[in-house]
UniProtKB/TrEMBL annotation:
UniProt protein name: Uncharacterized protein
Organism this protein belongs to: Catharanthus roseus
């Protein structure tokens, strides 16, 4: 007998798929993976039992204590498309902790697309750290605060990976776009399939206020929760025949991206003169929100 999702879960999946259709037309996709079964799609890879799949595969939790963190990875690799996951981050005093959620290939010349959530003291905002690695090189950090409490409920964090650009989204709102600028010599991740990974770990040497605030282990275990994984594969004809201009955000989403970057961006490598005294990386000459 076919399984029936709980109505609230079904509604969440409908919302996720609706966001896909709004931002990019359905004709650009050919398959959707929204099984909502972590047993089927993922495996716990480390943590000695601190990572658990619960509720018949509908919920996954990762925990951190003063002995170890934990992590999981997808069973299959992805090559272009959209990845969605709903996360509820560590509540309360999460200072010193990092919850990482990212796509990555393997090897020294790996590609990687990163979300990292840097914990903070109770009442202080989380920092959302983003980065893009190409052929083993990163150093393209942008950081943001959020316009809501990410510990009070689940929110959807998405990576939309086109051959022409990468878009980071939160609840369907784009917060960052990294364009394919190979024409000016900037490498772009387009040749290496990636798996999806997530982990929670202690990084109190740098994560909160540059390491000034340490992890309070009396608050352990620190728990991050996951549900409603969704993958939408990009249609092969789009990857081979569409132009960059046809894969941009629509005007409404572009304005939302500019709004986030104006009001919630707290660090941009392209404006860090102390870090790049000899000049910014070449992509910084371009307004990546355009």
């Amino acid at each position: 007998m076919a399984s029936i999702l709980h109505p609230s879960v079904s509604f969440s999946l409908i919302i996720i798929l609706a966001l896909v259709l709004v931002i990019y037309p359905m004709g650009e996709y050919h398959s959707v993976s929204a099984t909502n079964n972590f047993f089927q799609d993922f495996e716990i890879t480390w943590g000695d039992g601190r990572g658990k799949i619960l509720n018949n595969g509908e919920l996954l939790i990762l925990s951190l204590d003063n002995t170890s963190g934990s992590g999981f990875q997808s069973k299959k690799e992805f090559m272009f498309g959209r990845i969605d996951m709903q996360l509820k981050l560590v509540p309360g005093n999460s200072a010193g902790t990092v919850t990482a959620y990212y796509l990555s290939s393997q090897g020294g010349n790996h590609d990687e697309i990163d979300f990292e959530f840097l914990g903070n003291l109770s009442g202080e905002p989380y920092t959302v750290h983003t980065n893009v690695y190409t052929q083993g090189k990163g150093e393209r950090e942008q950081q943001f605060h959020l316009w809501f409490d990410p510990t009070a409920d689940f929110h959807t964090y998405s990576v939309h990976w086109f051959p022409s650009n990468i878009v980071f989204l939160v609840d369907g709102v784009p917060i960052r776009m990294f364009k394919n600028l190979e024409t000016i010599g900037v490498a772009f991740p387009k040749n290496q399939p990636m798996k999806l990974y997530s982990s929670i770990w202690n990084a109190d040497q740098w994560a909160t206020r540059g390491g000034l605030v340490k992890t309070d282990w009396t608050k352990a275990p620190f728990i991050a929760s996951y549900r409603n994984f969704n993958h939408v594969q990009l249609h092969h004809s789009f990857t081979s025949s569409r132009t960059i201009s046809q894969a941009q955000l629509d005007p409404i989403r572009l304005e939302k991206l500019k709004w986030v970057q104006k009001n919630y961006m707290i660090y941009n490598y392209c404006t860090d003169t102390k870090r790049f005294p000899q000049g910014f990386p070449p992509e910084c000459k371009f307004n990546l929100s355009d």
